[in-house]
Amino acid sequence: MDKFDIRSPGLRKYRVAGVVGLALWWLVYRSLAPFAAWFAYSLCGLTKGTHLGATVEFFVFESPKVLMLLALVVFGVGIVRSFFTPERTRRILSGRSESAGNVLAALLGIVTPFCSCSAVPLFIGFVTTGVPLGVTFSFLVSSPMVNEVALVLLFGLFGWKVAAIYLGTGLAIAILSGWVIGRLRMEKHVEDWVFQTHVGDAGPEAEPDWPARIRLGLDAVKDIVGRVWLYVLIGIGVGAGIHGYVPENFMASIMGKGAWWSVPLAVLIGVPMYSNAAGIIPVVQALLGKGAALGTVLAFMMAVIALSLPEAIILRKVLKPRLLAVFFGVVAIGIMAVGYLFNAMM
Amino acid sequence: MRKIQILGTGCPKCSTLMANAEAAVKAAGIEATVEKVDQIADIMRMGVMSTPALAVDGVVKSAGKVLSAADIKKFLA
Question: Count of domains in chain B?
Fold first, then answer.
């Protein structure tokens, strides 16, 4: 049992490395703001208050900040996810009643490792072993929507309030749309072969020990940060340009509160976009400063992240067209409701 | 003769795992076949929900991860 307990003496070096690493991370993180100011105004000799000065300072401050936050959070999430597997989640959800099952599925969607390329086997594995259809959809909505990359970017660029709102409303949409799909009794709109599939038992997988969990966390950092860093930099670069050069209130007429059609339009544009959330969020953040409304911006981001064309094509293998359309329709309506709600409140 | 199976419906991660498995067989210096299982019905029959997965002699050893060649070699010992 020793090597599974983080307090065991054999794991001392990991604890020491963790504390030292975190302290170093914090020191560097705290020095980013003064460094960016020094870089822009002393090293490059730019004048404070100019467009170019503001743009350079913004870029030099925001890009390492977001990448550092991303690395830390992805590492933490990687460790947490080593405690969850799709198999374990399925066992927890199997035979659950709806309502409570929808809530649980939406929460497990955050911590269960899941890649959209496994959506088909996961869907079959869930629905053939007693996870209700609506509960399965709550999982399928929350898993991509509430993801760590989106949350980190929202936290880093908008602050914790917007990140918390996104988390809360994202979970609510996952819970409610799964519940609605369950109420609609659409089991017969699942492709017939799905329920005829024989699902075997893979047997228990070996539980990873702590060194393995830490390695999983580091692998996640390498994989995810390696995949998105370029988009983040391009996004922040474009965002920095907008901050410095686009006139105030430029976006107010297009994405402002006054334009009622902006929420559905944002969702319509957002759905076919895919996986560039990392690059889109910084741009959108800059637009918010130019008069775009928060609800519209949230709706756009959710549509980009949660619904995508490739996902529809993958899910079409297991869902008949009507259920697929209902799934996208219900989630899109949920996202629009969130958009209008925040435009009305703020 | 050992049998290694790579389960997955053709995502890029599956090809990486396939290459790592072949490297592991070479490094271990054993006789083994490495084959792809890409039909969803076959993958489900083996009880796998997250791909890519790896099975040795019909027993699933790992799911949803791209194992390194060194990791795979441990399963061949």
Answer: 1
